[in-house]
Hints:
alpha/beta; 15 helices; seven-stranded mixed sheet; Aspartate Aminotransferase, domain 2; Aspartate Aminotransferase, domain 1; 12 strands
Amino acid sequence: MNKSFPLTGYSSLAIHSSGKNNADYSHITPIYATSTFTFDTAEQGSERFASPDKTRIYGRWGNPTFTVAEETIAALEAFGISDENGQPLKLKALLHASGQAAMCTLFFSTMQAGDEVLSHFSLYGGTHEVLNRVLNDAGMKTHIIDMRDLSIVEEALQKNPKIKLVHIETPANPTVQCVDIEAVTLLAKKYGKLVSADNTFATPYLQQPFRYGVDFVFHSTTKFLNGHGTAIGGVLLGKDLALMGSKVWKWHVLLGGNSNPFDAFLLTQGMKTLELRMERHCHNAMEVANYLASHPAIEKVNYTGLPDHPDYAVAMKQMRHPGALMSFEVKGGLEAGRKFVDALQMCVRAVSLGTLDTLVSHPATMSHMSIAREERLKYGITDGLIRLSVGIENIADILNDFEQAFQQI
Ligand SMILES: *Cc1c(COP(=O)(O)O)cnc(C)c1O
């Protein structure tokens, strides 16, 4: 395919955006299982070191299998977005060993001791702990507020001039709270701050934070981007290409959070069907939410596609569909919730999300076990709350499984 041939569709980009990366005419880019790369001559070695493309030097610095995954994610996050000059937005992506590694590269390459971060109170557990423990020990400080109230955001920005970075995660686990990316980014930019967004739950198919002027996006690729539950991974994307190619790249390489060729290959295969999968995930999720919302055994459903969710309007504004994550409370609290989870036949009991199968977990005794009860109740994580990542099975089987489980409570 000629590089200048314009691809207009999302799946076409997901499948073709990254050209061919091998000299042997293999159809699919191979798993380059190699720790280092050879030079024909000393001069060629020195040229590669001097070049901005660091993929063929040493495996921690880059690998052609990583490049395919990175170029694909960059194309998907930039899909249909123009830069200030009206040109297609260019992004640089760096593949990491995990979402946590990508987030640590972001925090450490953009901040130093004395700097402060502003973030929302409903955050992924690992992010919460990096902010409050790792960064705190490294001399940085975190302000956690309710970012859904813009006056609180502005007040925090006014009062704390040392804030360097505003970090958004939307939608967030497990009550699927949403933050208005455009409004928060506008405020952050008014005060000259950097803005980052964790786009893991939404994926670049449902939501593109760069559309609203954020500086960085990261993903746990472990979830919907890989989509099949076969590998842990993460990616950090930025629009300041010079910064991404210098300090951010350097910190990534020095912190040693590189991916590996096999996981990068699995991720690349998964991303090719992102659009197809997300359409089905979201279609199923809406059906499940409607079923739960009218079920007599259910106390409450948290899903951004239901108009009674407090962040319904924000989700509708910035997401293509309301996503595949939801949570609900069974009448009868903890005991009833446990019975329901144990009675499921097809749906799978597991943490994580974004896999082909429907995953069910119980935050109070699993993912949020280490958070004090009063604290988690403030976030809406009640004893009986059940978290669902709706899969792409046939909807009748998901609903049948739920119905037989409810009858056993
Ligand atoms: C899973 C997850 C992470 C961490 O990613 P890992 O791949 O597990 O390191 C960060 N943010 C969100 C929203 C996640 O769901």
